[in-house]
Design a protein that fits this description.
AKR; 10 strands; two-stranded antiparallel sheet; 274 residues; alpha/beta; globular; 8-stranded parallel beta sheet; Aldo/keto reductase; NAD(P)_OxRdtase_dom_sf; NADP_OxRdtase_dom
Length: 274
């Protein structure tokens, strides 16, 4: 695998495929791999696992050089449903094992008991279908209960919304205290960071863009980041952000951009930690 910074064994800079159509996911993966990125993030719920696989195949990069993350969607948390759904994901991805498998959300409205679907999730891990396991959008209480239920199995990461405008300190501080890596999704606040005056000023001296500085900030915080784009130039630009080192003073200024701008807050969400 290309030598890149890793967090808990996860390449720190990845390419996210949320909201990418079939062709966008296929082409985006090719461009990301051409840029040197070796971490590709997808999910059952994105409906593009097979397109990610096509992109990997057409890019011609060996499987053992790529870190693949996918996620089990809550619709597949029912009795006996997790394992078959993961096997279907592996078939779509054309792999025998993913590098990281996440539970995409806690079961909305507690439709399925955590102990039931987490138990199935543990069986998937024990069967060797994933090298690492983790969660996404889990709260402190759910993290605690998951640790108890998983026993000796390690939660590698909690993937949560995190960007300069919503730094999500309650859950992030908690995960870091427990040694659980944070993966930041929507790290560019769905494009809202572009043109930010503070980020632009910090980037100007480096010939960097505001969005590159936003990514560099999250990297400086020790998070895995998975920006997404359908544009080749932007994908390459995002990946280059990993080379930027911010000063402590710059990090402090960017911390001041926090404004609680949570983008994901539907009725399917848990009660977020405050």
């Amino acid at each position: 695998m290309t030598k890149e910074t890793t967090v808990a064994g996860i390449p720190q800079m990845g390419y996210g495929t949320w909201n990418r159509s079939a062709d966008e996911a296929h082409q985006g993966v090719i461009w990301a791999l051409e840029a040197g990125c070796r971490h590709i993030d997808t999910a059952q719920g994105y409906g593009n696992e097979q397109d990610v696989a096509r992109g990997i195949k057409d890019a011609g990069v060996a499987r053992n050089e790529i870190f693949i993350t996918t996620k089990v969607k809550p619709d597949n948390y029912g009795p006996g449903a997790v394992m078959p759904s993961v096997r279907e994901s592996l078939e779509k991805l054309r792999v025998d094992q993913v590098d990281l498998l996440l539970l995409h959300w806690p079961s909305p409205h507690n439709k399925y008991p955590l102990a039931d679907y987490l138990g199935q999730f543990a069986e998937v891990f024990d069967a060797g279908l994933a090298r690492k396991i983790g969660v996404s959008n889990f709260t402190k209480a759910l993290i605690d209960e998951s640790i108890r239920l998983l026993g000796s199995r390690t939660i590698t990461t909690n993937q949560v919304e995190c960007h300069v405008y919503m730094q999500n300190r309650p859950i992030i501080d908690y995960c870091q205290k427990l040694g659980i890596a944070v993966t930041a999704y929507s790290p560019l606040a769905r494009g809202a960071v572009v043109g930010d005056a503070v980020l632009e000023e910090i980037g100007k001296a480096r010939g960097a863009t505001s969005d590159q500085i936003a990514l560099a900030f999250l990297i400086a915080k020790g998070h895995v980041v998975i920006p997404s784009s359908s544009k080749r130039g932007r994908i390459m630009q995002n990946f280059e952000a990993r080379k930027i080192t911010l000063t402590p003073a710059e990090i402090k200024r960017i911390e001041g951009l926090e404004k609680g701008m949570r983008l994901v807050n539907g009725d399917w969400c848990p009660v977020w930690d405050a």
